[in-house]
Amino acid sequence: MEEVVAERSNLDGVRHILLVLSGKGGVGKSTISTELALSLRHSGKKVGILDVDLCGPSIPRMFKVQDSDVHQCDAGWVPVFVDQEKSISLMSIGFLGPKKNGTVVFQCWAVFPEVGSDHSDGTPFIFAALIKQFVADVAWGELDFLIVDTPPGTSDEHISTVEALRPYKPLGAILVTTPQAVSVGDVRRELTFCKKTGLRVLGIVENMSGFVCPHCSECTNIFSKGGGEELAKHAGVPFLGSVPLDPQLSQSLEEGRDFIQEFPKSSAFPALTRIAQQILDGALQRSS
Ligand SMILES: Nc1ncnc2c1ncn2[C@@H]1O[C@H](COP(=O)(O)OP(=O)(O)OP(=O)(O)O)[C@@H](O)[C@H]1O
Known about the structure:
By secondary structure, the protein is α/β, with parallel strands linked by helices. It has one domain: P-loop containing nucleotide triphosphate hydrolases (Rossmann fold, 3-Layer(aba) Sandwich), CATH 3.40.50. The protein is built from ten helices and 13 strands. The strands form three sheets. Strands 1, 2, 5, 6, 9, 10, 11, 12 and 13 form a nine-stranded mixed beta sheet that branches. The protein has a two-stranded antiparallel sheet with strand order 3-4. The protein has a two-stranded antiparallel ribbon with strand order 7-8. A hairpin with a 2-residue loop joins strand 7 and strand 8. Helix 1 crosses helix 10, helix 4 packs parallel to helix 5 and helix 6 packs parallel to helix 7. The protein starts with 13 loop residues before the first strand and ends with a helix. Bound molecules: adenosine-5'-triphosphate. Pfam families: ParA. This is Nucleotide binding protein 2. It is found in: Cytoplasm, Cytoskeleton, Cilium axoneme; Cytoplasm, Cytoskeleton, Microtubule organizing center, Centrosome, Centriole. One of its GO terms (biological process) is iron-sulfur cluster assembly. Keywords: 4Fe-4S, ATP-binding, Cytoplasm, Iron, Iron-sulfur, Metal-binding, Nucleotide-binding.
């Protein structure tokens, strides 16, 4: 009798996949992805980040590996490791194109010729094909978590990403917002998107939520406060926490430093580590 061999995939060794989404740009998706990866590493986990922001990939810079090049092995693209222990690995469109003055001048069909150049005007087809290939072609090896940092909005890239990941049963999505109403309104659309695509909402994070004065510890709510928590309550999804505006956090990201290791007394530290703990607990529950 002919033996049936299961199709092997580069994601077979990945235990949990989660997506980080936001309705608006600049609310801190890549920040949350980065700090979540660092917190999970400090809990002894092996983590990968897949940066599918085709237009503005910022993950390489946040780990200060923006000048790294990726190469291919038999199984596909080898991700960039940020440490010798290989506990965090990254793949970003930012690594793939030719670099000019630090920015990526990127033509996707040059990197993935299989996708074809007929749709060079950026039609949905090319994004769908590119993302599918990007998800399938990275040799991640064994990972506890793969964090997928997405572009802002609920565009074709998002649908393509969710569709490409669906066979691997992602754990769910973290939705990031700032406290202002407009950003919270965008998250409402993200909630609808998750419902429509069958993606579980792991919870909402309210980022840039107040500023704690480093001198007197008083909290000023620069962009108001509590919108994310209220929305979570209203939608019946978990609220993962409020991360304050923290100059040490933005500086760490700017310099590619490990905020979780270096700034445990900083105002954003407790919220960021609590978010990671809730994700860990949720993943454990799902595994048991
Ligand atoms: N809590 C915070 N405290 C201080 N600075 C922050 C905080 N969150 C994010 N930032 C800063 O805000 C900027 C935007 O954050 P980030 O790049 O993570 O947003 P994004 O949602 O991923 O953006 P894009 O949609 O462009 O990908 C970054 O410079 C980051 O350092």
